[in-house]
Predict the 3D structure of the following.
Amino acid sequence: QVQLVESGGGLVQPGGSLRLSCAASRSIFWLTTMGWYRQVPGQQRELVATITNDGTTTYAPSVKGRFTISRDNVKNTVYLQMDTLNVGNTAVYYCSLGKGPRTPPNYWGQGTQVTVSA
């Protein structure tokens, strides 16, 4: 198994920025994609961004241009830089590890709360 440990969430004002980090306990050869999802209570978990081990990225239309996903393959860590935050970005953010951008993740992080409020 793989453990994913997240950090970086918190309270931020509208227009502000946060950087989330997620470190995997180990690498598995065939699990090439790391990503970020988010979930609001009572709603479905939705995809935010993914990145493959060669650096190919995908983004949800609502965050493209404001959020940036990146990874450090040496550290087995994925990051999400979130800029120009708005109240609609308030959610619990989960990192993930899986086989590809279009397949369900195999592993999930514990979740980190992001709250955007004035």
Q: What stands out?
A: The mean pLDDT is 97. The radius of gyration is 13 Å. The chain has no helices and eleven strands.
